[in-house]
Write a structure and sequence with these properties.
It is a single chain. This protein has one domain: FAD/NAD(P)-binding domain (3-Layer(bba) Sandwich). The strands form three sheets. Strands 1, 2, 8, 9, 10, 11, 18 and 19 form an eight-stranded mixed beta sheet that branches. Strands 5, 6, 12, 13, 14, 15, 16 and 17 form an eight-stranded mixed beta sheet that branches. By secondary structure, it is α+β, with helices and mostly antiparallel strands. It contains ten helices and 19 strands. The longest helix has 30 residues, at 329-358. The mean pLDDT is 88. The two termini are 42 Å apart. The radius of gyration is 21 Å and the shape is globular. 35% of the residues lie in helices and 29% in strands.
Length: 395
């Protein structure tokens, strides 16, 4: 089997890359695990894993004819964001809204199942995509040929490694990485609230307890993302949902009122790590998504970074010189250079915020309050933050 593009990975970023290259007229293979191609059925309960997609992600998905295939009843617009630092929320606050940037929406909250169902539907109708199910066994030394566990071989001019933070493709290319555990887990669950959220995303920096975020869902419902230290995360998972509600009421009772757990009435969690590969390219290989970078969810931009990777890779490959192959090293170097600044900035910002607000130093606490208050009162700086949060749509 011979293709121009071989995408390895069954997540939303990999599927978007496969669709983008196929719509550009290239022959694409998407490798998925066995059983992953079965048609998804949207569950009535809300998915605990949600993403805050910015304008860059929306524009990509719209161009792929995926955005309009989402279930609109399960998409919530984020019109503003209220951030509270430390225990004294009256002194350390930051409020950002889309209207200051002349936009209606800062971001959109979308469930994992809603996003992947729309992508799967689009893939079924994509003429240039061959979905192959199976597991990888080995890669040829020059990265021209992939051998599956069945013994079948697949050749591609360019491999797109979209296989997550523990990327097999990255390891096969011998790409080293900087890795650090945050000692935290992302604890997620959904609730209804007695007060309307008005499209506001709330976030509280709560010192040694981590970072609590409540994101708006359609109606009077919210999605919790609590970046909690490992020990606290274990406690939250062991406790009842009623105990979790009591913990959250300390932060959000005034803004959202009383919380009521939504089905499936349990919390889920995932580890939070910092991962920065020494390169996002290899021989005929480009990494995207978590395979290329894993950042803390404090800014909610992990998925957005992945979709930005796809946008840049599509542009770089489709605009290459006609005589260059998709996997030409010059083409890949252009992709790596184009992604370096945004990824490095996001890594520094998210890592810096976690370190800054995770410290109990009185000096840093005072500095945090002063800093947030100043930024909140300076429209120029605040507008820059808003533009970055939305994907710099007003450039």
């Amino acid at each position: 089997m011979r293709y121009e593009i071989g995408v390895i990975g069954n997540g939303a970023v990999g599927k978007a890359a496969a669709l983008g290259f196929a719509q550009a007229g290239l022959r694409v293979m998407l490798l998925c695990p066995a059983g992953a191609t079965a048609a998804r059925v949207m569950k009535p309960e809300w998915d605990a894993r949600v993403f805050a997609l910015n304008h860059t992600a929306k524009n990509l998905l719209s161009g792929l004819k995926v955005w309009d295939a989402l279930d609109p009843e399960r998409v919530a617009a984020v019109e503003s964001m209220h951030v509270f630092g430390d225990a004294d929320t009256t002194e350390a606050t930051l409020q950002m809204d889309a209207y200051a940037a002349h936009q209606d929406t800062m971001a959109w909250i979308i469930e994992d199942q809603n996003l992947n169902q729309a992508l799967d539907a689009a893939l079924r109708f994509a003429p240039n995509v061959q979905v192959v199910t199976g597991k990888t066994r080995e890669m040829s030394p020059d990265f021209s040929e992939l051998i599956l566990e069945t013994g079948e071989s697949v050749e591609a001019d360019l491999w797109v490694g979209a296989d997550g933070a523990q990327s097999w493709m990255r390891n096969q290319a011998g790409i080293g990485l900087d890795y650090r555990s945050y000692g935290q887990r992302g604890v997620v669950a959904n609730f209804s609230c007695s007060k309307p959220h008005h499209g506001v995303a709330h976030q509280w920096f709560v010192g040694e307890q981590g970072i609590v975020a409540l994101l708006p869902l359609p109606g009077q419902q919210v999605s919790l993302v609590w970046s909690a230290p490992d020990a606290l995360a274990a406690t939250l998972q062991a406790e009842s949902m009623e105990q979790l509600v009591q913990r959250l009421s300390v932060f959000c009772a005034g803004a959202l009122g009383e919380l009521t757990p939504l089905a499936p009435y349990r919390v889920q969690s995932f580890p939070l790590n910092f991962i920065s590969p020494h390169s996002i390219i290899g021989p005929q290989l480009a990494l995207v998504g978590d395979a290329a970078h894993a950042v803390h969810p404090v800014a909610g931009h992990g998925m957005n970074l992945g979709f930005s990777d796809v946008v840049t890779l599509l542009e770089t490959v489709t605009q290459r010189e006609a005589w260059r192959s998709c996997g030409d090293i010059r083409v890949l170097q252009r992709y790596a250079r184009a992604r370096k600044e945004e990824v490095l900035l996001m890594q520094c910002v998210t890592d810096g915020l976690v370190r800054l607000f995770g410290s109990s130093s009185p000096v840093l606490q005072t500095g945090r309050k002063i800093g947030m208050s100043l930024v909140n009162k300076l429209p120029v700086f605040k507008n820059l933050l808003i533009q970055h949060a939305m994907g710099n749509v007003a450039k």
